[in-house]
Amino acid sequence: MRAATLRAPVPDQRARVLIVDDSAVARAVIGRVIGGSDGLMVAGEVQDVRTALEFLAREQVDFILLDINLPGVDGVTALPDLIVAGGAAKVLIVSSSAADGAQQTIQALAFGAADTLVKPTAGAFSANFAQALLDKLRRLGEPAGFVAPAPPVPPRAPTPRADAYDLVAIGASTGGIHALSHLLRELRPGFRLPILITQHLPATFMPYFAAQLATLSGRPCDVATDRMRVRPGRLIVAPGDAHLCVAALPDGSACIRLSHAPSQSGCMPSVDPMLASAAAAFGARAIGVVLSGMGRDGTDGARTLRAAGGAVVVQDQESSVVWGMPGAVAAAGLADIMLPPDAIGRLLAERRRP
Fold first, then answer.
1. Whole-angstrom Cα distance, residue 351 to residue 151?
2. 119-165 pLDDT, tens digit each
3. Do 57 and 86 form a contact (C-beta atoms < 8 A)?
4. How many CA atoms lie within 13 A of 302 on its CB side?
5. CB-side exposure of 161: number of CA atoms within 13 Å?
6. What is the number of other CB atoms lying within 10 angstroms of the CB of residue 295?
7. Annotated catalytic sites, by residue?
8. N or C: which end of the chain has fewer CB within 10 A?
9. Are strands 243-248 and 254-259 parallel, antiparallel or unpaired?
10. In sequence order, what are the residues at sequence separation of 6 or more whose Cβ sits closer than 8 angstroms to the Cβ of residue 253?
11. Whole-prediction pTM
């Protein structure tokens, strides 16, 4: 008889999820969704922040599902501590407070939450919620690799002037609000370039988003309206239900034009028309920035901006929650440089070419 061969146990490759919710019903429902899916497992279920921090001190997880309304310390206040304790874990806010327009949602995203999902009220959980939760986790967990990036665009001769730009246009999606907060903090109070921002968010979020950016940057921030003047030292954000475009005026100034035309990416608002319009209005005097986000929105606009002589900077993979958008620009050979958000902010503050 042949001796039996002993085999080492196969390590569990499923992503580990920690559920932080004070509702036993919610924990049970979410636990069943996670436990019944391929590639995910429930690593722990806790009802408050203190217990979550104790758990993370001894266990590693890949995702933290965090409610906002918790006994003791609320989820938003605790978010920075949970991010540190969780290491590389991505935090998904799953809360009834994450409804459209909720100020707490914008704060959570600015503090580093990867994404948000509205939790139904007790008794209203459905298959739609389960599918939405699994879709969010799947997308956040996807590797962002590009197998065969295009060769980089040949470098251009640097501009000798220190004040190389007149306009900054920034596009972002998932993970972008946190990246924006790091970028904007690096701009000195005397930084006077106008900054246009297209962030993938619903229109109802925009007043809170603009207020948050004004606080973070220490400069005025407006939600764009059609024909609004582009002024030095101000931020202008896309309204959420229209593309933010810029147009040159005969007197040498510029104004905002809103567009509802379909975009290549299917996003509303989309980064592509913003960057393309910046290329048309400012040419080589515009710099585009593409931050963390899913998909490839911004790639076509970056190509147009590069062709007009402008520069394109993208967030690096290591610091991105999702390297889809900046990765697509980099893979197309359209990025002049890849940097983490704080370094992008310092680059912009110097107003020099990458």
1. 26
2. 987 677 888 999 999 999 998 987 544 433 444 554 554 443 446 89
3. no
4. 28
5. 7
6. 18
7. 173, 200, 297
8. N
9. antiparallel
10. 229, 230
11. 0.89
